[in-house]
Amino acid sequence: MLDVVYCFILIEGQLVTEIPKSSSGHHKDAAEQTPSRLERRFPDFSYITQNGRLTDFLDCVIISHFHLDHCGALPYFSEMVGYDGPIYMTHPTKAICPILLEDYRKITVDKKGETNFFTSQMIKDCMKKVVAVHLHQTVQVDEELEIKAYYAGHVLGAAMFQIKVGCESVVYTGDYNMTPDRHLGAAWIDKCRPDLLITESTYATTIRDSKRCRERDFLKKVHETVERGGKVLIPVFALGRAQELCILLETFWERMNLKAPIYFSTGLTEKANHYYKLFITWTNQKIRKTFVQRNMFEFKHIKAFDRAFADNPGPMVVFATPGMLHAGQSLQIFRKWAGNEKNMVIMPGYCVQGTVGHKILSGQRKLEMEGRQILEVKMQVEYMSFSAHADAKGIMQLIRQAEPRNVLLVHGEAKKMEFLKQKIEQEFHVNCYMPANGETTTIFTNPSIPVDISLGLLKRETAIDAKKPKLMHGTLIMKDNSFRLVSPEQALKELGLAEHQLRFTCRVHIQDPRKEHETVLRVYNHLKGVLKDYSVQHLPDGSITVESILIQATAHLEDQGTKVLLVSWTYQDEELGSYLTSLLKKGLPQSTS
Amino acid sequence: MKLYCLSGHPTLPCNVLKFKSTTIMLDCGLDMTSTLNFLPLPLVQSPRLSKLPGLVLKDGSTFLDKELKECSGHVFVDSVPEFCLPETELLDLSTVDVILISNYHCMMALPYITEYTGFTGTVYATEPTVQIGRLLMEELVNSIERVPKAQSASMWKNKEVQRLLPAPLKDAVEVSMWRKCYTMPEVNAALSKIQLVGYSQKIELFGAVQVTPLSSGYALGSSNWIIQSHYEKVSYVSGSSLLTTHPQPMDQASLKNSDVLILTGLTQIPTANPDGMVGEFCSNLAMTVRNGGNVLVPCYPSGVIYDLLECLYQYIDSAGLSNVPFYFISPVANSSLEFSQIFAEWLCHNKQTKVYLPEPPFPHAELIQTNKLKHYPSIHGDFSNDFKQPCVIFTGHPSLRFGDVVHFMELWGKSSLNTVIFTEPDFSYLDALAPYQPLAMKCVYCPIDTRLNFIQVSKLLKEVQPLHVVCPEQYTQPPPSQSHRTDLMIDCQPPPMSYRRAEVLTLPYKRRYEKIEIMPELADSLVPLEIKPGISLATVSAMLHTKDNKHVLQLPPKPPQPPTSKKRKRVSDDVPECKPLKPLLSGSIPVDQFVQTLEKHGFSDVKVEDTAKGHIVLLQEAETLIQIEEDSTHIICDNDEPLRVKLRDLVLKFLQKF
């Protein structure tokens, strides 16, 4: 199974089911739970199997990255529904995932008073079932099934997975990003030619303007606001974009020698920076190269935030969680600052419907808060897409890299996906699917069959010119489950059978008054002239061979002017033998020298 | 399958394996023991070293006294130290396709190979191996280049001259091949040819061979390699450890079912127990410091030093050493300490768990934070301001011939309060100390070599059961100094094949099969026939395509339609193009039934004669006879093609085709 929220099940290479997290269609980006989605918090795992244990039904579970829309239901799935098989994820994901799960649990249970939720102990027990994988490591799940992780960019530790059985394979991308950013590298996959590529399609139609422009825009807006004494609020998710924007601001502050304070809201974030320091090998080339001299995640200008700072006078920049302004510190700060038009809020990612973030982005300026309070939003509201998904260009690029035989789009909006699907089918001439929720897609593969060929047979065929395709003849022996292709001779020998030789000898009469040996010489010269590619030999005993075909001449008993040619060949030389007799029957050319 | 053995050093191997059209170099270790024959390179002019007398030969001649110096009865070359390279003449190294590196100690000759031999292939290594290997090379280049030596001795290398010298110079091998250290640009060029790989990653070489690195448990990122095709498996075991130190544990299971297992890099000190040595190291260190002396630990900038620092971290408070400064001096000290913290994925389970918290995996982070451990690029600069005695100094090089260690040997050698503790096993400590004699300081030998010992090897071999074992000749006999210890050699059945420098071994193996793929369209067209219960046969006539060493069988192309034009053809146009492919036949022909069939097909004058071996069927009118025997049939007829074809097909009805 791939990711427990966007959940796919693979059975013997066939994609059988897709279970979306909620009934409201495909979802986007990372987000904590929002009220509208609480009714159906977890996927309905009974889609996988109605009766019987998940462990018996699933070979393994693969988690692509730590965002909660990809792993949020994992403890529920393994501890409450019950799954004891292996769960695979990369090391950074394994490190960060339990922290986010615990955070998620705290918000849901402690703050919102939800019951029937997984416990801290369940998170721990669940993590014990996790097997960490290296990039490019081939993990043998069982005798047939193997998986391999590729770098996906998106967030720290994000991976795409290749799933392979025999020569059939599927690549599942999770979320990925094809352009390197300030802290992560670009997703990469080799030309693995999977039968099926399951790719996210969050930005199915967007071709985002160049990263540099967006960054310049962002810095300009922050700078202008700070210059005029305003406060900037950047609601972020604790891990991922936050680090990229921090690096961006940190270097800008240093270059421009700015003094306005930058704060990072407490909790996860400091810890998050630690993870980035320790897993620096997962970041981009530049950060990895320079980390000894300067660890990019040790920020000089960015300090920890204290609740009291929000009321300080003067300009400041605050990164606060959560990213969609639906609860917690970011919402608190927002309420404090919303009334002042000098201030600015920058939303660096997608917001789910129903959240404050979504409302202000869609232009709403009067918000109804708890207790019927109306909050008037005078501060400037900006949206900047920094979320690290592949755009249409990136998705096409990945398809070009991997060369799949089929593509399946998930994690996007139906209308946009339809557009991308057409584009993919046009450009790559492969089937592209976009199943709706609960829909089953069956994809037929046509694998070739690997067999063992005896080296003797292979060498016989490749001895002359290995590059040129050539016709070969062999016998396939099928015994139990083994397939062996051997030479016919070897097959006979192995089965204890004798060869039956079938030989033909044809009498060909030709008119030639000369002596026998002269006739033979004429025949020899004639054949030599016609059969340029064949080995034609004149043997000392007076006979001629063409390859293994034997030709002898005798005088006719009654007619001295007629010679009888005896042409003799085996069934294996049938065509050549037959051709020779018809050739000789036409007689010899007149001119002989 | 051939193995070219380019190095005679069992722990610094360099072998080339020729396997299925690929040429694979396994490690390129650099034998640095040659440097022991040279005088140390002091950072500051050493009056003692410069006053050493020149060598006077037995016959009184002094022509070598500029090149060779004498110190306490030993002769040293007064020149830039030189290294003993792997053989470069045994085979053309430009034909090497790939180099597989097993750990950072075994890649020190890489620049010599990639930059001097016309090598154009790829080098494969794990990320920690490359990063730490780079640090080792950087330190080496740096410590030699910063002490420029005017003189480069070469006269003594003359064969005639060398004969006259005292041992060990007299017996030094291949001195003409010794080379000076490479430069940083060469290091960078060599390292740029490396492609990073992860454990258990399957790497295809030209479609013919697959290579896979496996965790070997010896150092950060250290690997053993599996080199295999579909039918053959060669395991290359180099520098492995079963002890629990900082690296990920050794993967033994994947070595199973090898046809050949090449075994190198066993412990160099088979009689010493690493745990005991660490204990001795700590107690000697504490005793010296308590008595007011300084401790010098000559070491590499990475590897065992991490474990030593971890032991000291736990030990110093209980031993009352909290106020003693620990210094780590190396041009790459900072990088080494930083790099050690970022390879979580390559560490043992305990250290990984720490990273998940998130905490630095090695406690030296805390030692640095609390100022107990300080690191400096060299003795110049900050160090000279901070330097307090008594102290403990970790610095290189373990050969005592170059690096900052030379300075401290000169500085502390005269006092018996001080101690030098040898922990690296690569150099004989007595040889290392020779140019510093006479010496007052205490010398303690605590070699820590975590690599496999002979007991572990024999257990490992029993477990993984290779068909053949190949190893350096040193492992097939007890060590020369302990010739009675027959337990200190490899014991396995069949006995291992041994190699020595410049030898070429032919490895025993028989290849019978190769993988080929049958395309689905062709597979559909096959008609299997059950010949015996459980065994089915199908004759296959197909086009064989070979590309990138992969073989594929496809449906043969349909025969082209005979041209319909009436144009007169040349005779040769009719010549059959490719060799006809007719199946073999098997079975026998029952004469009675055959005759019946002939009659059914309109032959009325069939006559049968018995012969010694079978029968002759005569068709009198057609002047045709058919000899039928158990294993053969011979049709002799006039040139009447329709008749012959008809008879042929009747005969074939009774036979099976293969």
Automatic annotation (TrEMBL), chain A:
<dbReference type="Pfam" id="PF10996">
    <property type="entry name" value="Beta-Casp"/>
</dbReference>
<keyword id="KW-0479">Metal-binding</keyword>
<dbReference type="Pfam" id="PF16661">
    <property type="entry name" value="Lactamase_B_6"/>
</dbReference>
<dbReference type="InterPro" id="IPR041897">
    <property type="entry name" value="INTS11-like_MBL-fold"/>
</dbReference>
<dbReference type="GO" id="GO:0016180">
    <property type="term" value="P:snRNA processing"/>
</dbReference>
<keyword id="KW-0963">Cytoplasm</keyword>
<keyword id="KW-0539">Nucleus</keyword>
<feature type="domain" description="Beta-Casp">
    <location>
        <begin position="242"/>
        <end position="360"/>
    </location>
</feature>
<dbReference type="GO" id="GO:0005634">
    <property type="term" value="C:nucleus"/>
</dbReference>
<dbReference type="GO" id="GO:0016787">
    <property type="term" value="F:hydrolase activity"/>
</dbReference>
<dbReference type="GO" id="GO:0046872">
    <property type="term" value="F:metal ion binding"/>
</dbReference>
<dbReference type="Pfam" id="PF07521">
    <property type="entry name" value="RMMBL"/>
</dbReference>
<comment type="similarity">
    <text>Belongs to the metallo-beta-lactamase superfamily. RNA-metabolizing metallo-beta-lactamase-like family. INTS11 subfamily.</text>
</comment>
<dbReference type="InterPro" id="IPR050698">
    <property type="entry name" value="MBL"/>
</dbReference>
<dbReference type="GO" id="GO:0005737">
    <property type="term" value="C:cytoplasm"/>
</dbReference>
<dbReference type="Pfam" id="PF21386">
    <property type="entry name" value="IntS11_C"/>
</dbReference>
<dbReference type="GO" id="GO:0004521">
    <property type="term" value="F:RNA endonuclease activity"/>
</dbReference>
<dbReference type="InterPro" id="IPR048662">
    <property type="entry name" value="IntS11_C"/>
</dbReference>
<dbReference type="InterPro" id="IPR011108">
    <property type="entry name" value="RMMBL"/>
</dbReference>
<keyword id="KW-0862">Zinc</keyword>
<feature type="domain" description="Metallo-beta-lactamase">
    <location>
        <begin position="4"/>
        <end position="230"/>
    </location>
</feature>
<protein>
    <recommendedName>
        <fullName>Integrator complex subunit 11</fullName>
    </recommendedName>
</protein>
Automatic annotation (TrEMBL), chain B:
<dbReference type="Pfam" id="PF16661">
    <property type="entry name" value="Lactamase_B_6"/>
</dbReference>
<comment type="similarity">
    <text>Belongs to the metallo-beta-lactamase superfamily. RNA-metabolizing metallo-beta-lactamase-like family. INTS9 subfamily.</text>
</comment>
<keyword id="KW-0963">Cytoplasm</keyword>
<dbReference type="GO" id="GO:0005829">
    <property type="term" value="C:cytosol"/>
</dbReference>
<dbReference type="InterPro" id="IPR048660">
    <property type="entry name" value="IntS9-like_C"/>
</dbReference>
<protein>
    <recommendedName>
        <fullName>Integrator complex subunit 9</fullName>
    </recommendedName>
</protein>
<dbReference type="GO" id="GO:0034472">
    <property type="term" value="P:snRNA 3'-end processing"/>
</dbReference>
<dbReference type="Pfam" id="PF10996">
    <property type="entry name" value="Beta-Casp"/>
</dbReference>
<dbReference type="InterPro" id="IPR027074">
    <property type="entry name" value="Integrator_9su"/>
</dbReference>
<dbReference type="GO" id="GO:0160232">
    <property type="term" value="C:INTAC complex"/>
</dbReference>
<keyword id="KW-0539">Nucleus</keyword>
<dbReference type="GO" id="GO:0005654">
    <property type="term" value="C:nucleoplasm"/>
</dbReference>
<dbReference type="InterPro" id="IPR022712">
    <property type="entry name" value="Beta_Casp"/>
</dbReference>
<dbReference type="GO" id="GO:0030512">
    <property type="term" value="P:negative regulation of transforming growth factor beta receptor signaling pathway"/>
</dbReference>
<dbReference type="Pfam" id="PF21382">
    <property type="entry name" value="IntS9_C"/>
</dbReference>
<feature type="region of interest" description="Disordered">
    <location>
        <begin position="550"/>
        <end position="574"/>
    </location>
</feature>
<dbReference type="GO" id="GO:0160240">
    <property type="term" value="P:RNA polymerase II transcription initiation surveillance"/>
</dbReference>
<feature type="domain" description="Beta-Casp">
    <location>
        <begin position="305"/>
        <end position="433"/>
    </location>
</feature>
<dbReference type="GO" id="GO:0032039">
    <property type="term" value="C:integrator complex"/>
</dbReference>
<dbReference type="InterPro" id="IPR036866">
    <property type="entry name" value="RibonucZ/Hydroxyglut_hydro"/>
</dbReference>
<dbReference type="InterPro" id="IPR001279">
    <property type="entry name" value="Metallo-B-lactamas"/>
</dbReference>
